[in-house]
Structure formats: structure tokens, C-alpha cells
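> example.struct
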């Protein structure tokens, strides 16, 4: 898959494609249905498939402090899109200049002059352009004169409700990992590199891997039973995602994972953490001794969980 960052990096060879536009946060089953149709139409027309995304996502640009947490980081999203067989991703910088483009200007600059789109797949609720004035009806109106066709992406439902990134976030916030997996089409996981931390957990007798989140906000918070993939093997563990209130954290979310019965140096290594069950919310403890007691109880609860259903 070829990544193009910004309109200014588009070249003549990038013109002519079947495209779709959106945030694609989580690349869930609804997104996967759109991407499958995109591949089909691209094959029919003999052109590449292209997904147009934004960085930051529009709501992060307008209200960074209240924007919803991402299900997937940009890197994870790109890997998932590549896994879906997409040929090209155009990542547009969502800035003031892009935000002020009218719907007609967006169509001309991005879809016509930039990509030379032959066919466009979008949701029938898709909005774009300054003040979100452009919609599906507008695309259908201008498409024929600009040389492209438009089709509404099919809605995918689970238990009578539309699959959406919002619904995935709700499932994660409620620690309903079975529902999240059903909506995503895969278990929810967080990947990252192990960094050097404060080494406080080691002093408390339970060493943890401090994994870089690279997120303003995490989609879930608390203490969880997890499994960790390392060198092709999965290890049972217990993890905390939160701001570490007992030890005066920096206010940003951190992921700390303790692997059960593991001994080894994993600093700098890349881990994949899958979430299975929530043990409790994150809380502030009156002392480090109280924190240690809670951590010991969390480890014991994780052991009991894995004894009840051994890790495959």
C-alpha cells in the first residue's frame, strides 16, 4: 500500500482511482464492508483503490480536549487498511486551509484535480466542506459533470444497531470486549514499544512494561486481564491504563503491563496487548503500601481468570 501525505505530494501517476473518504477509526466491520466494495469497483474499472483520511481527525482539530478517544492510532489504522487490500491512502492534513474549503472547492481540489476519481463510495450521511455544507446529494449532483459516479455505502448492523466507531468506543468504555470484538471483526488490541519508566512497580515487587500509547486519550481506563504477544508467543498478564493518580502522574494516559511468570529484559521491544476482562477502575490510594496490596490482588485475580480459561 502506498501512503501519500498531503495534496502537494500527489503526482500525475496518482490520478485515476476509486475512492472513499472518512476517519476510518478502528477499521471496524462497517468500514470493512465499504473497503470490500471499494476493491470490487476498483477491479471492475481497472484502477487503484484509494482511501482519503484526515490527520488530525476533524473533531480533534475543532475541539482537541473533548474529541473522542481514538480506537486506533494512525499507524495502526494504516496497517489495517493495508491488510484490507487497499492500494493507496491519501492522508490530508486537516488544518484551517482545508477546513475553509467549500464543498465545491473540496471536490475540485481533492477528487477531480488531485485524484482524478472515477467512482466514489461514501456513507449516505457523509458531510464535508466548510460548515459541513456538502453531502451525499451534492456529490450525486456534481459527480456526473466532474466525471465520477457516486454510490452510498451499505450500512452494517449488529443486533439491530449500526456498526460505528462510536459504538466500538462505547463497548470499550463498558469493558464489553466480546461486543467490541464482534464490531471490529477482531479482538481489541493496543500495540506499542516498551519504554523505561519510573521503575516504581519493580520496587513494589511487580515489574511492569511501560508501553508508549501516543494518544491524547485512551479508549478505556482501569485494570484489566490481558494477554501479550511477544516473539510469536502469548503471555497472560494484568494491565493498567490510566493517569497513575497515586504516584502523581503527568496527566497523560499510560499503559503498564505485568506479564505473569515472565523473566527477561523487554525494553525497546514491541508488544501487542489484547484485553479480555476488566478487574476494577483506576483509583488513588492513600499510600504506596495500599497500592501494593491492590496490585497483588489484581495479579491474583488475573491468575484465577487464566486458570479458569487457559490461554491458547
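> example.seq
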Amino acid at each position: 500500500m502506498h501512503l501519500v501525505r498531503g495534496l502537494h505530494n500527489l503526482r500525475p501517476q496518482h490520478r485515476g482511482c476509486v475512492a472513499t473518504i472518512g476517519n476510518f477509526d478502528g477499521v471496524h466491520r462497517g468500514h470493512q464492508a465499504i473497503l470490500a466494495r471499494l476493491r470490487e469497483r476498483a477491479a471492475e474499472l481497472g484502477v487503484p483503490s484509494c482511501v482519503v483520511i484526515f490527520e488530525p481527525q476533524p473533531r480533534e482539530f475543532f475541539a482537541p480536549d473533548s474529541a473522542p478517544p481514538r480506537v486506533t492510532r494512525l499507524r495502526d489504522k494504516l496497517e489495517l487498511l493495508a491488510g484490507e487490500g487497499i492500494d493507496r491512502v491519501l492522508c490530508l492534513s486537516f488544518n484551517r486551509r482545508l477546513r475553509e474549503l467549500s464543498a465545491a472547492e473540496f471536490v475540485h481540489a481533492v477528487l477531480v484535480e488531485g485524484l482524478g476519481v472515477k467512482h466514489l463510495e461514501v456513507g449516505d450521511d457523509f458531510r464535508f466542506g466548510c460548515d459541513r455544507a456538502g453531502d451525499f446529494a451534492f456529490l450525486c449532483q456534481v459527480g456526473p459533470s466532474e466525471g465520477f459516479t457516486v454510490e452510498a455505502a451499505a450500512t452494517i448492523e449488529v443486533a439491530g444497531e449500526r456498526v460505528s466507531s462510536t459504538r466500538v468506543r462505547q463497548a470499550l468504555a463498558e469493558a464489553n470486549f466480546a461486543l467490541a470484538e464482534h464490531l471490529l471483526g477482531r479482538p481489541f488490541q493496543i500495540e506499542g514499544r516498551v519504554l523505561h519508566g519510573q521503575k516504581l512497580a519493580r520496587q513494589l515487587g511487580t515489574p511492569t512494561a511501560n508501553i508508549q500509547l501516543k494518544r491524547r486519550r485512551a479508549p478505556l481506563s482501569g485494570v484489566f486481564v490481558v494477554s501479550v504477544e511477544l516473539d510469536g508467543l502469548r503471555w497472560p498478564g494484568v494491565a493498567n491504563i490510566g493517569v497513575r493518580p497515586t504516584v502523581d502522574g503527568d496527566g497523560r494516559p499510560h499503559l503498564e503491563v505485568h506479564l505473569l511468570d515472565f523473566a527477561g529484559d523487554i525494553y525497546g521491544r514491541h508488544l501487542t496487548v489484547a484485553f479480555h476482562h476488566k478487574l476494577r477502575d483506576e483509583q488513588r490510594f492513600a499510600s504506596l503500601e495500599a497500592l501494593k496490596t491492590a496490585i497483588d490482588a489484581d495479579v491474583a485475580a488475573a491468575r484465577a481468570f487464566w486458570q479458569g480459561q487457559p490461554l491458547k
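> remarks
The domain at 187-308 is CATH 2.40.30.30 (Elongation Factor Tu (Ef-tu); domain 3).
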